[in-house]
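Researcher: First entry.
Model:
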Amino acid sequence: MELARASRLQRWLGAALSAIVVGATITTLGGCAATPPTGQQESVQSSSNASEATLASWRDGAARQAIVKFVADVTQQGSPNYVPPAERIAVFDNDGTLWSEQPLYFQFFFLLDQVKAAAPSHPEWKNNPAFKALMANDMAGVMREEKRLLPLITTANSGMTVDEYDRTIRAWLETARHPKFNRRYTDLVFQPQLELLSYLRANGFKTYIVSGGTIEFMRPWSERVYGIPPEQVVGSTQSVTYEVRNGQPVLVRGPRLDFIDDGPGKPVGIYRQIGRRPIMAVGNSDGDLQMLQYTMAGTGSRLAVLVHHDDAEREFAYDRQSKIGRLDKALDEATTRGWTVISMKQDWSRIYPAAQP
């Protein structure tokens, strides 16, 4: 089992590293790039009152109409498809669905920065070819040495208490900037999705994140950014043990993954943590396919939604051939089964909220 987990994590690592090499705009990990292209500076804030200008950043196309019709159908008393509030569960993938994921999963930028931060405590790393390549910003070299990099990532992101790790994540998110847009990563959430989350909650839905990212990385900021509390975040998990340090009980991060919440793992995570089959699922890649299939296999009115990244000017354009967030099999199934596909270019009048100081 551990070998299978390690192999899967290694494939994820390899895809991520390949994306760095392919992404010509990347010059430094976590670094800054040029000013966002024209049209990238957005002018709308998320509204805490979903009754005001509901779904304001959604153009009146087929995707918006499908969502509004579905919500009306399951919330209207007397409707044959009425769903009681306790059963109105909507699940959202995070990377590529609620915020951007190119040219690299944002958590991976953090993991690599953790390796750099931990380097002074590990002088033995200086002879590691992967570490040498990372410090030289030689991403092609890093990719060639990915097997030697994985133990460094594991070491740099374990051994501390969960509270210490939480503070590290919060501090990193305040200072790190996206290499293309030169904005904080939590600024690169999708404004239309913020509106959709508010709209669903205003109509009695409980909204969950179901992501391949780790719960430790997402929980520190999910409530502030999305309005989704930490107990409603389902994700991959790392081993944690109870210890007493300096007379205080603490939880300490271990060096291995307990559970990978991606692909077929997503329905398992939903079953374990939520305990109800969702009636709505939103994703953007083949890693979300099983979550959408599981959602749609239930009875009654249901909605499966895919976000298609087809806006190279305001965000990124990618699908079937992408190493990050590949949308291939799920796109075919959406066509076959009549699932709702959101065109970012056609269906969203804006992508990101206004830049914050």
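Researcher: Second entry.
Model:
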Amino acid sequence: MALVVQKYGGSSVADANSVKRVAKRIAEAKRAGNDVVVVVSAMGDTTDELLDLAAQITPLPPQRELDILLTAGERISMSLLAMAITNLGVKAKSFTGQQAGLITDAVHGRARIVDVVPSRIRETIEKGQVAIVAGFQGVTTETNDVTTLGRGGSDTTAVALAAGLDADVCEIYTDVDGVFTADPRIVPAARKIDRLTYEEMLELAASGAKVLALRSVEYARRYGVPVHVRSSFSHAAGTLVVGTHGDRIDPNAPAPAVARAAGDGAAQKEAEMEAPIISGVAHDRSEAKITVVGVPDVPGMAARIFEVVAAAGANIDMIVQNVSAAQTGLTDISFTLPEGDGPQTMAALKSVQDELGFASLQFDDQIGKLSLVGAGMKSHPGVSAALFGALRDAGINIEMISTSEIRISVVTRADSLDEAVRAVHHAFGLDSSEGEAVVYAGTGR
């Protein structure tokens, strides 16, 4: 018997028929002899609809009240799914994040899980019942208020529960058949990846791949939780995200076999020698670029600028500082950040312009980021040349470049991003020979 945590996204439970279909899949897993815990997102676009409703009431809703509002979506899903499973003759019970023991900090809207105390979930499992948990939410012990975890929070809920329950595997069900070498909505010839390391998946998620939330992958790596990404619309083999490369895991195998193979160090080490150079191409349209023009090139100036940015609560991605002009002693500093963080960051920098002495600020929200990811690239020369050559041949101009051991990221114009992704994907031989990838519904979450 295995303990399996399954997570179903909003597109998987978009309507009553979808809920019934997911319930049937859960009942089959339970009847196969597994203990099953399910994390569920809000139905379809419910969260966005609730946000729109709040915006009609006030442009600045209190974060505490917004969290209470948004958690209603998952509560609807969890109760309907529990009803559907019970209707199939399998006992099920639903729980809010608070009832499931998901303890968070007190930051409304983007809370972080600080502890998991799943005593009621364990009791439900011991009684032979399926536990259904509302994703995306928890509770802070400071005030006992409901909190939400931010976008992709249900993925994080599922992995955190899997870690807290010492589950054999965490299955993330979405609307594509796994993790692909590129977004199949942009590159129909994208190829499904059978296996990824946590590090590769972290880079892909951080670079814009939406199939797994970044924080869920961080949590999985920290606690060694095997993650199996699959489609709720088919029974196709998915993508395994585990510690190191290996080729002896059958994604169709039962959960215990997946977990055992994920821990087979000898097999992983042997197969890692033949790991592919490039795992995939990710893209991100959600960033903007700020350029601080005419910065005095003196020690400590960059530190002061980014202290102001940090105080504004912005998350910085890429940074480029130009060489100082000898005649003027001035330089320009450009950095990218989430587009939503742009207004407050611009305002914060503007308020210290006289103090820091820079000339002006520029804001650009028409950029796109392309990232090439692969654990094998660090030991293979010529990857950068091939990437830049593919972009050159496609007539794509590069504005910024950033690298890590297993990633190269470039910033281009937003209207060139799709073409850039397709060009790079083809240049590195990632196109599938098995026909077009299937996108069953939704946006890939």
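Model: Note on the second entry: The longest strand covers residues 287-296.
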